[in-house]
Each structure stands twice: as structure tokens, then as C-alpha cells.
């Protein structure tokens, strides 16, 4: 940047905010950093005591902060300005809208309900470079349309193109140049609920588990196609699972029978259905006895422990959004849930605005 007489600054880009103070009335910026000075601005600038200004001086190999912020946006979303679709003051790409660059900063907002994903290693590579930053909400979390997803900015007023290129090279080395962020829309699914337990099957108690699932599933684009009650006979449960799949179920939820008691045979029944078990037992409380499996055709079959019925939040709330977004869950990913996997049972539940599962 360079210092220039205010009278000669028409067409120049301000490198700093211009603040006006009127006693008892106002204190704030008259012009923001990045503003292009016009002829009409000169008297205003002189009235606030600015005889000289710091203005942007283009140099070979250097980028203005807003240009650098646009490159950070591309790291996050992928695509260029030409590929992004402008809607008023926003540009939408990959189900995320980006604000226009201002003072070297851009924010991303969800344009639909879905599962927010973050490439943590690639994000680390960018933030390790210095002079630039990207801050996001936690990945693998459910978001709703209008939720803020990320903010990014270049720290100094100008940054070298070489430094931005270095960050891009680091991302390509880490993940082949894929976008750091993604938003996977929820996919409409057909769900079957299978309730197990002789006490429910024989009418000794009322099924209070299914209504809980119906309430949770009601927030997603799903249709419950069947509700079946089975005895503790594992073959009956296996037959119910296979029957649900034959009806076209994309997701089968088996409730109860998940502990180590002799009569709790749901894990065996799921295994006998031909499902491939991803995990039986997870480092999450509530939800340690949770089971996740997939059929060869990709349909998910879950065994839900009793805590899902009475606890406000459990591992089911962490895994369900991923399954509904067709984002396969691995054993290794479940293992990482130990840190943050302890629900604190707060008097007023604020999930997902808490540390559970993150």
C-alpha cells in the first residue's frame, strides 16, 4: 500500500476503515476498508480530518485480501466464480451459498437441510500456512437451511499469490484437490421398525419405543412403511428383517434386545439376516450397546438399545443423519467418538449446540 493525498485518491481502494466521531451522536466507519474512493467522497474524507489516505497499490504477485478470500472459498466449495450461480448478493455452489467478499472475509451458509462434512486434514493444511484462516462448525453434523457453516478470511490486507498457491498445493497433496467442505442432502428413505421383546409381543406392556422413533424420524424425509412386533425368538426377528427388506425398506430399526441378557438376541438375529456388522458396541454414553450393519445392497440395519427410548440424545442421533445422507459410517469413525461421546444430561438439552458427539 502507499500514502496518497486525499484529493488525488479518486478511483483508489482504501486500505483502512475511515471512522467518524460526532459527540453524543455516532462513532463508526464512514467508509470501510476496500471502498473505492469517488469524487463525492473527497469532501466527506476531508471533513473527518483525512488529508492523506493509505490506498491499495497493485504489485505483481500480490493479491488484495478479497481476492485471497475468494481463493479460500474455492478451497472450501470448489469451483470458480464462473461456475458458481449468483443469487442476489450470494453465489450458490454445492448446496452452500457464499457471501460476497468484504474486508477479506467470506461466509458460507447452508442452502438446504443435510449433513455437513469437513475434511479435517485439508482444513489443517490451510490453517497451518499463516496469514489465512478458515473456521467451520463441526463436521458430520446435521444442518438446516440457513445455518451458518463456515467463515474464512485473509489476515493481512495483501497476500502473495505464491502463499495461496502453496496452500492449494498442500490441499492437492492431502486429498487430490477436493473441496474441504461439502453438504450432503438428506435422501428420502423407506423405514421399517421392528420392536422386539416378549413383554410387548404378548401385550404385557405397551410399545413406547416406536413413538419415540416416529418423533425423531419426523424431522427427516422418511416414510415408515412397516411396524412389526416380535417375540424374543431370534428367527422371528431375522424373518421380520428380511421381510422388511423385501418390502423395499432402505433402513431397518430393531429396538430392544441389545444387552447381554440371555433373552436379548437381537444382535444374533441381525447377523443371521445376512447383514455385515460394522460395530456392536460404541464408545458413546448413552448408546454403548448400539449396533450398526449394512446389507449387501446398501440398506442399513440398526440395533437400538433401550436408552434411545428414554434418553434425550444418544448415539442414534449421531449416526442417523449420516445414514439418511447416504454417508457410510465406518468402524474407525465410530471409534473416534469416544472424545465427546459422553452426554452430560443437561437439565435443558441444547443439542446439537453442545459438545456431544464432536
TrEMBL record:
It catalyses: adenylyl-molybdopterin + molybdate = Mo-molybdopterin + AMP + H(+). Pfam families: MoCF_biosynth. Keywords: Magnesium, Metal-binding, Molybdenum, Molybdenum cofactor biosynthesis, Transferase. Its EC number is 2.10.1.1. Pathway: Cofactor biosynthesis; molybdopterin biosynthesis. Its cofactor is Mg(2+). The keyword Nucleotidyltransferase does not apply. SUPFAM superfamilies: Molybdenum cofactor biosynthesis proteins. GO terms for cellular component: cytosol. GO terms for molecular function: metal ion binding; molybdopterin molybdotransferase activity. GO terms for biological process: Mo-molybdopterin cofactor biosynthetic process. Residues 192-325 form the MoaB/Mog domain. InterPro entries: MoaB/Mog-like_dom_sf, MoaB/Mog_dom, MoeA-like. Signal peptide: none annotated. CDD domains: MoeA_like (cd03522). PANTHER family: MOLYBDOPTERIN BIOSYNTHESIS PROTEIN (PTHR10192), MOLYBDOPTERIN MOLYBDENUMTRANSFERASE (PTHR10192:SF28). Catalyzes the insertion of molybdate into adenylated molybdopterin with the concomitant release of AMP. Belongs to the MoeA family. This is Molybdopterin molybdenumtransferase.
Amino acid at each position: 500500500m502507499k500514502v496518497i493525498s486525499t484529493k488525488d485518491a479518486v478511483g483508489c481502494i482504501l486500505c483502512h476503515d475511515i471512522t467518524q466521531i460526532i459527540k453524543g451522536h455516532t462513532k463508526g466507519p464512514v467508509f470501510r476498508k476496500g471502498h473505492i474512493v469517488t469524487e463525492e467522497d473527497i469532501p466527506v474524507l476531508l471533513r473527518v480530518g483525512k488529508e492523506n489516505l493509505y490506498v491499495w497499490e497493485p504489485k505483481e504477485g500480490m493479491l488484495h485480501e478479497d481476492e485471497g478470500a475468494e481463493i479460500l472459498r474455492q478451497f472450501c466449495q470448489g469451483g470458480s466464480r464462473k461456475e458458481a450461480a449468483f443469487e442476489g448478493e450470494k453465489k450458490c455452489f454445492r448446496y452452500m451459498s457464499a457471501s460476497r467478499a468484504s474486508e477479506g472475509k467470506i461466509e458460507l451458509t447452508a442452502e438446504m437441510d443435510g449433513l455437513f462434512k469437513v475434511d479435517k486434514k485439508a482444513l489443517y493444511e490451510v490453517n497451518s500456512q499463516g496469514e489465512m484462516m478458515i473456521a467451520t462448525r463441526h463436521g458430520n453434523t446435521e444442518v438446516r437451511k440457513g445455518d451458518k457453516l463456515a467463515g474464512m478470511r485473509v489476515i493481512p490486507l495483501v497476500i502473495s499469490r505464491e502463499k495461496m498457491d502453496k496452500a492449494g498445493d498442500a490441499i492437492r497433496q492431502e486429498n487430490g484437490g477436493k473441496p474441504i467442505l461439502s453438504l450432503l442432502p438428506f435422501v428420502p428413505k423407506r423405514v421399517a421398525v421392528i420392536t422386539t421383546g416378549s413383554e410387548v409381543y404378548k401385550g404385557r406392556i405397551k410399545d413406547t419405543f416406536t413413538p419415540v422413533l416416529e418423533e425423531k424420524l419426523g424431522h427427516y424425509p422418511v416414510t415408515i412403511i412397516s411396524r412389526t412386533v416380535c417375540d424374543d425368538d431370534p428367527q422371528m426377528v431375522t424373518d421380520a428383517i428380511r421381510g422388511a427388506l423385501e418390502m423395499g425398506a432402505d433402513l431397518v430399526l430393531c429396538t430392544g434386545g441389545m444387552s447381554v441378557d440371555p433373552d436379548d438376541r437381537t444382535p444374533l438375529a441381525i447377523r443371521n439376516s445376512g447383514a455385515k456388522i460394522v460395530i456392536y458396541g460404541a464408545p458413546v454414553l448413552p448408546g454403548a450397546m448400539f449396533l450398526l450393519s449394512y446389507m449387501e445392497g446398501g440398506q442399513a440395519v440398526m440395533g437400538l438399545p433401550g436408552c434411545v427410548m428414554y434418553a434425550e440424545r444418544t448415539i442414534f442421533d449421531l449416526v442417523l443423519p449420516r445414514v439418511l445422507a447416504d454417508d457410510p459410517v465406518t468402524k474407525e469413525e465410530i471409534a473416534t467418538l469416544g472424545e465427546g461421546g459422553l452426554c452430560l444430561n443437561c437439565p435443558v438439552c441444547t443439542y446439537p449446540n453442545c459438545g456431544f458427539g464432536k
